[in-house]
Design brief:
The complex is a heterodimer of chains A (357) and B (449).
Chain A: H1 14-34, H2 42-45, E1 47-54, H3 60-72, E2 82-88, E3 100-107, H4 114-127, E4 134-141, H5 144-171, H6 177-201, H7 208-239, H8 245-281, H9 284-328, H10 333-351
Antiparallel strand pairs in A: 1-3, 1-4, 2-3
Helix pairs in contact in A: 1-6, 3-4, 5-6, 6-7, 6-9, 7-8, 7-9, 8-9
Chain B: H1 8-25, E1 27-31, E2 34-39, E3 46-47, H2 49-52, E4 54-61, H3 69-85, E5 92-96, E6 101-107, H4 117-125, E7 130-134, E8 142-145, E9 149-158, E10 165-173, H5 175-187, E11 193-197, E12 200-203, E13 215-222, H6 224-236, E14 243-251, H7 256-305, E15 315-316, H8 318-331, H9 333-346, H10 352-385, H11 392-395, H12 401-432
Parallel strand pairs in B: 3-15
Antiparallel strand pairs in B: 1-2, 4-6, 4-14, 5-6, 7-8, 7-11, 9-10, 10-13, 11-12
Helix pairs in contact in B: 1-7, 1-12, 3-6, 7-8, 7-9, 7-12, 8-12, 9-10, 10-12
Classes of the chains: A alpha+beta (357), B alpha+beta (449).
């Protein structure tokens, strides 16, 4: 009796997968460039923070509404996305009518005109005549810190990538680990790009959450890829060098497929719970963490199966061919290739029955 | 392979249950009037600024002084000890050497009555240089400074001219200070000298004669609190220059307890759904995976709450909690890999014991290699963004709490996964399969036998 398994030809359909991934990236890139520039948190871009003080406790949501409507009427600030943060003045002697502070954070280097500030003040005063809205301060925030931070993150990720490639190369040397490691990292880059576009398309500013999601997906996607490589390593040991790389990898991916699906499901259940609950509670900062994470997880599983493995097979085939060419000085490569093909066809017919290990 | 005894399952189960209970509820006791915490539970976790709110201030050297790196390092060290002196241990100090800025953040709740962040920040910014000057004028000759003081302490003593008691700050000089103080008192005998903290006159005693005891006492209208504060200030040392407060404000707990409650609900929902899923798909190994998952989560909570005295409690932020919930989902991965392997084996018609043995053996390398790569990521994050700061030569000394915390929880997650998802799960599985009643292969995902 044989266990029911998946028989999906992941390697053969590689071109379709590449097209899907590239297509999504291309469309996102065009949207990104044409009408949806990436929003970056003020801590990375710098910008202007204008603080208004007021007394009493008007609802925060209404303040945001008034400000956003006012901005829409100003041409220069029409497309600005403003972050709001609320605080309380701690300075001694602040009287009650100026105790509360709402800070509007404008990202980017655009200066906010005095007349525009006045327009916002007027609108707020009109909306809340009793709360004494007044502009308290307007400060430009430096961005230099942010650029440094991003660079540091990139270097950290690059360091991790290099060490991981070395580790994979060492542990999987029997199946040509260096190329496997490189392809795993290619899949990671694929996931990072997808996560980036999720932030862009859902209009979420790139901030600490972005870094956290990217790092999490990094670990997850890599773990997924390694589990498949482990199967490949094991199957290669069992089957010997007769089986073609494509055949071998395809079998291994299919054998791991249930596990990939199940782990994805449990992980998505976990982060999905966070997403649903924060949607109900309306906690936007967690939504901007959970949503890209969820899409990133799907991308992470997908890229392991549909990007890393097919790419690695292509690489292997290419380098094998080159090796063969070198060995046989060109003449017998055709023969060898056709032999390989015949073997592959034979393996293909036996594939459907042979599953047990 | 050695056979695992039947009771092992229950021993492991009870250990996990005990760990889960204590890590959530903690163990508290009473010692007379004091509440004593023996083991810290969920309620002892320090919540980050995003949940509790806090204060942030940015300091810069006053008067446009261009500080060099060692000076900024000194400033950071002095601010560190001042904050600790004020009993604030949960703070962040971020120096930026290139731009001579220091940012300080500490959690603070607006309903805290007994703590005044306004005064705290003003005090942090002050140079706090102690000086002894000749005469009572602030421009008088500087006789001694805080550098000559070995130790300052608050003390309670009888006043000179009456029987009442007062709080004072006692000073012990170092050798150089002792010599200087001896000379100063010799030359100012019969005259007044004054003791200053920055521009504030603390006291101006008259010198009655040469003092060579190597100690002095600052009197003034101190209370117990102000005397202690002054002593702490002197002990922390003086800043090389005065700081100005560039910006200062409260940070509202933007997310608040609302968010904390939401995360609590989310984690319970996630746990319940994953439990159901694992039971339906993997049956008995699914149940064991769930028990192991509870153990894994307990270790993660213990690692942030300060359960183990060796690891100090960690500040938990909302992304940190979300990451923890995510680790619930990823935590069963090792069990899924193993259970799938066992299923594979069962279809080959081997005995159940053989299948479990081969399944656990065959799945180990995948779990190991997968987790080691995650450990690589976690360790690099901790080294780069934590106190170790291995890239400081490139980017300056600035730690990033969020990413450091993320790396820490990730590392804890992987290690507890090895303990629970691999070791404990295997012990439980091999032990429980010893029961005749549970020998049915269907319980492990095999076909009807």
């Amino acid at each position: 009796m044989m266990r029911q398994r998946f028989h999906i030809d992941f390697i053969g359909k590689a071109k379709i997968f590449f097209c899907i991934s590239l297509g999504i990236m291309l469309v996102s890139l065009i949207l990104n460039l044409v009408c949806m520039p990436a929003l970056v948190d003020i801590q990375f871009t710098g910008g202007t923070i204008i603080k208004y003080n007021y007394g009493g406790e008007p609802a925060h949501k209404n303040i945001e509404k008034i400000v956003n409507e006012t901005l829409k009427g100003i041409d220069a600030l029409k497309n600005e996305k403003v972050d709001f943060s609320y605080s309380e003045n701690l300075a001694a002697g602040a009287d009650d009518s100026a105790k509360h502070i709402v800070a509007l954070q404008f990202t980017g280097n655009k200066a906010v005109d005095i007349s525009h500030k006045q327009a916002i003040t007027d609108a707020l005063q009109k909306g809340y005549p009793k709360n004494d809205f007044a502009e308290e301060s307007s400060t430009a925030v430096d961005a230099s810190k942010g650029a440094n931070f991003f660079l540091k993150c990139i270097i950290a990720v690059a360091m991790a990538a290099v060490i991981m490639i070395l580790y994979v190369a060492l542990r999987f040397r029997k199946i040509g680990g260096l190329s496997a490691g490189v392809m795993a990292v290619v899949a990671l880059i694929h996931d990072l790009i997808i996560v980036y576009f999720v932030f862009v398309l859902f209009r979420m500013p790139l901030n600490d959450n972005f870094i956290a999601v990217v790092l999490m997906i990094l670990g997850y996607s890599l773990n997924d890829t390694i589990v498949i490589y482990d199967r490949v390593r094991e199957n290669r040991r069992k089957s010997g060098p007769k089986v073609t790389t494509a055949e071998l990898v395809n079998n291994s991916v299919n054998q791991c497929f249930t596990r990939t699906i199940c782990t994805s499901i449990t992980t998505i259940i976990a982060i999905g719970s966070v997403l649903v609950v924060s949607l109900i509670y309306g906690i936007s900062s967690i939504i901007s963490f959970a949503l890209p994470m969820m899409i990133g997880l799907v991308s992470g599983s997908y890229s392991s199966i549909c990007i890393a493995c097919p790419l690695w097979v292509m690489w292997k085939n290419h380098s094998d061919k080159k090796k063969a060419e070198k060995k046989n000085n060109g003449g017998s490569t055709v023969k060898k290739a056709s032999k390989k093909k015949a073997k592959a066809a034979k393996a293909d017919t036996t594939k459907k029955e042979s599953v047990s290990e | 392979m050695k056979k695992i005894g039947k009771p092992v399952f229950f021993i492991v189960f009870v250990l996990i249950a005990a760990l889960a209970y204590t890590s959530i509820f903690g163990i508290y006791g009473e010692n007379g009037d004091f509440d004593v915490t023996y083991i810290k539970g969920l309620s002892d976790i320090r919540w980050g600024i995003d949940i509790n709110g806090g204060v942030e201030a940015v300091f810069a050297p006053a008067d446009g002084i261009d500080a060099d790196e060692t000076q900024m390092e000194d400033v950071k060290g002095i601010l560190d000890s001042r904050l600790v002196g004020q009993n604030i241990t949960d703070y962040e100090v971020y120096p930026d050497y290139e731009h001579d800025r220091i940012t300080i953040r500490f959690p603070w709740k607006s309903d805290e009555k007994d703590y005044d962040p306004d005064a705290a920040i003003a005090e942090l910014a002050s140079t706090s240089e102690l000086t002894f000057k000749g005469g009572t004028d602030s421009s008088g000759e500087v006789l001694l400074s805080g550098k000559d003081v070995k130790r300052a302490y608050a003390s309670y003593q009888q006043t000179n001219n009456s029987s009442s008691y007062e709080y004072v700050v006692g000073l012990e000089f170092n050798d150089e200070g002792r010599e200087k103080f001896k000379q100063a008192t010799a030359s100012y005998t019969g005259k007044q000298i004054s003791i200053w903290m920055d521009d504030e006159l603390l006291s101006a005693p008259s010198v009655s004669g040469t003092i060579d005891s190597g100690s002095a006492v600052i009197t003034g209208s101190f209370t117990s609190k102000t005397a202690t504060a002054l002593a702490n200030k002197i002990n922390a040392g003086a800043l090389p220059f005065k700081l100005t407060v560039e910006s200062y404000g409260t940070i509202s707990p933007s997310l608040g307890s609302n968010a904390l409650q939401a995360m609590g609900i989310a984690s319970v929902v996630a746990l319940a759904l994953i439990c159901a899923f694992m039971l339906i798909i993997y049956r008995l190994p699914g149940l064991i995976a769930f028990i192991a998952l509870i153990g894994q989560l307990s270790i993660s909570i213990a690692a942030v709450s300060g359960y183990f005295p060796l690891f100090p409690s960690f500040t938990m932020t909302i992304p940190g909690i979300a990451g923890l919930i995510l680790s619930i989902g990823m935590g069963v991965d090792a069990n899924i890999i193993t259970a799938e392997r066992i299923k594979d084996e069962l279809w080959t018609g081997k005995t159940l014991d053989g299948c479990i043995r081969n399944g656990t053996k065959g799945s180990f390398t995948a779990i190991f290699d997968g987790n080691v790569t995650v450990i690589i990521v976690a360790v690099i994050l901790i080294l780069v963004f934590g106190p170790a700061n291995i890239l400081s030569s490139l980017f300056g000394v600035s730690t990033t709490g969020l990413i450091y915390a993320f790396g820490y929880t990730l590392l804890v997650g992987v290690i507890s996964n090895f303990i629970m998802g691999v070791a404990a799960s295997r012990l439980m599985l091999r032990s429980i399969s010893g029961y005749k009643l549970l020998k049915n292969k269907r319980l492990y995902g095999g076909a009807k036998s």
